[in-house]
TrEMBL record:
InterPro entries: F-box-like_dom_sf, F-box_dom, LRR_dom_sf. Gene3D superfamilies: Ribonuclease Inhibitor. Residues 9-56 form the F-box domain. This is F-box domain-containing protein. It comes from Botryobasidium botryosum (strain FD-172 SS1).
Length: 585
């Protein structure tokens, strides 16, 4: 220990208690413990600091839980509390009845401080432990802002007919609409009738052993009239069935964001909801029957503030030869969603009939997969404000240019996957980023639409990403000559060779007659291009990185492993170049 360390230790030991207290107030729990090792005074001061005792961590497998909780509570003063209960599987514990009595004693201790709860979490391996503890915790929780209940159990199936346990926490009198409580529930199906008015954010994760019904979902939502944000993720529930008559209309007048996943018969939920303030809706893993599309149509009609709609399908199991269900809209043939800014529909083609009847004049982001050219052309033609467009696996694209290109003057980012021919129908003069990907389709003639777009629109691209594109050296160089603002160039599994890299490596002529090809280039990515060799990459980096102004960074994956000599040469640029080969990734 040097002199400075000795002096620092002496000074630390001589600090007054109020200074040490103030230091602890600015530390997290584990940092408090670490710095308390300075000396006995610091440890004593920590034990006297009530803020240290407010985070109470309780494992149901420990002995004397109630005594530990009481000990911490006594030292926490009147501060707000964060309580975390976890572990404990009553089905495999020795002497389970003793464990149950321990949980009861713990509940009695915690009930005495409910007015100070700020966060309460119970994450245990047995639903029975939750069922024992919750009924004891009946009372007001005026400071509660976060509640989490998770049953980590996969063997015991919850019957759809079983009575749902009540969470007996009470909202403060007169504050039902003002409190802001976030609730997270995982693999447990409770009732929230007493605390519901305080809940503004609700997250529910189901499991295959907790099959929710439409009555469960709607009853929970009905008990939370002040919800602003709601996420329901319910795998394993299957079809939820028709709800009871008493739940046919549930008003959520403040709800702004709603996401529902793994509810195949979504119509049994959507038909019952009144959502006038809804701004964002996300749905996934839905069986898009005629009734389901009709229910969604009604939401679109009633929720005039809807600005974002997302539909995803994690594992689309539909047969491409199966025709979607028919859909006939009510009242009008076409619905214009004027507030909609962002639309993403990926992975489920059965929603296509509904798409054929909607428009959105002010959309800024549009992501579509597995739809038809007719739908795409109509939607982009009516969306003059699009700035981000992503289209994948679009069918029925005309072989001849039967339609004029749609001018998208606001478009900055364009992603096209498995349908390069679509580029023939887009004019984007202010495009900044272009992704053209064909990972799962024949690449024949995929270069022609790219070259035509660049020639037609002359965009000042800053980023170009190509994957599995059938483009020659001459064609890509012709494109690059028109893209002098390009900063990022990514070529993945394309037919180009070292000829392109050597063209990029040619420096300006001494007399100033020529410039770099792509003078603003900063990043290159060359992945699995069979005709690109280590020698071409070395030549490119050797030339570009002689000048700090034109220095580039790169990421290269070769098809074959470079030789030892090439690997050593490439390592000279390791500060700006990452190298791998196909057999190592």
């Amino acid at each position: 220990m040097d002199v400075m360390e000795v002096d620092a230790t002496v000074i630390a030991r001589e600090l007054p208690r109020d200074v040490i207290h103030n230091l602890y107030r600015h530390c997290g729990k584990w940092n408090m413990i670490r710095i308390s090792h300075v000396c006995r005074l610091w440890r004593q001061t920590l034990h006297e600091y009530t803020g240290f005792w407010t985070d109470i961590d309780l494992h149901l497998g420990d002995r004397s839980l109630d005594l530990k909780a009481a000990y911490w509570l006594e030292r926490s003063g009147q501060r707000p509390l964060t309580i975390d209960i976890w572990g404990g599987n009553l089905d495999i514990e020795e002497a389970p009845f003793l464990k149950e009595h321990s949980i009861v004693r713990l509940g009695i201790v915690l009930r005495g401080c409910m007015d100070r709860w700020q966060s309460f979490k119970i994450e245990v391996y047995s639903r029975r432990a939750i069922d024992i503890l919750l009924p004891i915790l009946a009372g007001y929780t005026p400071m509660l802002r976060y509640l989490r209940i998770e049953a980590i159990e996969t063997d015991a199936l919850v019957s759809v007919d079983a009575e749902r346990p009540l969470i007996p926490l009470l909202a403060p009198i007169g504050q039902q609409g003002g409190a802001k409580l976030s609730v997270s529930i995982d693999s447990y199906i409770p009732r929230l009738t007493t605390i519901g008015p305080s809940i503004t954010k609700l997250t529910v994760d189901g499991n295959h052993d907790t099959p929710w019904t439409s009555n469960d979902v709607l009853r929970m939502l009905q008990s939370c009239p002040n919800l602003i944000n709601c996420d329901l993720y319910l795998p394993g529930s299957g079809e939820m069935g028709t709800p009871s008559e008493s739940l046919e209309s549930v008003s959520l007048l403040r709800l702004e964001e709603l996401s529902i996943y793994f509810v195949p018969d979504i119509e049994n939920i959507l038909d019952a909801l009144l959502l006038p303030a809804l701004e964002s809706l996300a749905l996934g893993q839905v069986d898009w029957t005629t009734t389901a599309m009709s229910a969604l149509w009604c939401v679109f009609v009633a929720s005039r503030s809807l600005s974002s709609f997302t539909l995803t399908d994690e594992s689309p199991g539909y047969d491409i030869l199966t025709a979607p269900a028919p859909f006939h809209p009510f009242h009008a043939d076409t619905l214009t969603l004027r507030a909609l800014k962002d639309l993403e529909i990926t992975g489920n083609a059965f929603i296509r009939p509904l798409l054929e009847h909607i428009n959105f004049s002010d959309a800024e982001t549009l992501h579509l997969t597995s739809t038809t050219f007719g739908v795409v052309y109509r939607l982009i033609s009516s969306s003059a404000h699009l700035c981000d467009l992503s289209l994948s696996d679009v069918a029925d694209i005309p072989t001849a240019s039967t339609h004029s290109p749609v001018t998208l003057s606001a478009l900055c980012t364009l992603r096209i996957q498995n349908c390069p021919k679509l580029l023939d129908y887009i004019h984007a003069p202010y495009l900044k980023s272009l992704h053209l990907l064909c990972p799962s389709r024949s690449t024949a003639n995929s270069e022609a639409p790219l070259c035509a777009l660049i020639e037609r629109s002359t965009p000042a691209l800053t980023a170009l990403y190509l994957q599995t594109i059938d483009i020659t050296n001459e064609e890509i160089l012709g494109c690059l000559e028109r893209l002098s603002h390009l900063e990022i160039l990514s070529l993945n599994a394309c037919a180009i060779s070292d000829t392109v890299l050597r063209a990029l490596a040619v420096p300006p002529s001494p007399g100033g007659g020529t410039e770099w090809l792509l003078p603003h280039l900063k990043v290159v990515q060359f992945h699995q291009n069979v005709n690109i060799t280590p020698q071409g990459v070395i030549e490119l980096f050797a030339s570009r990185n002689t000048s700090a102004k034109f220095r580039i960074r790169g990421d290269v994956i070769f098809v074959e492993k470079p030789s030892g000599q090439d690997a050593r040469a490439l390592s000279h640029y390791s500060s700006s170049l990452s190298v791998a080969h196909s057999h190592s990734v």
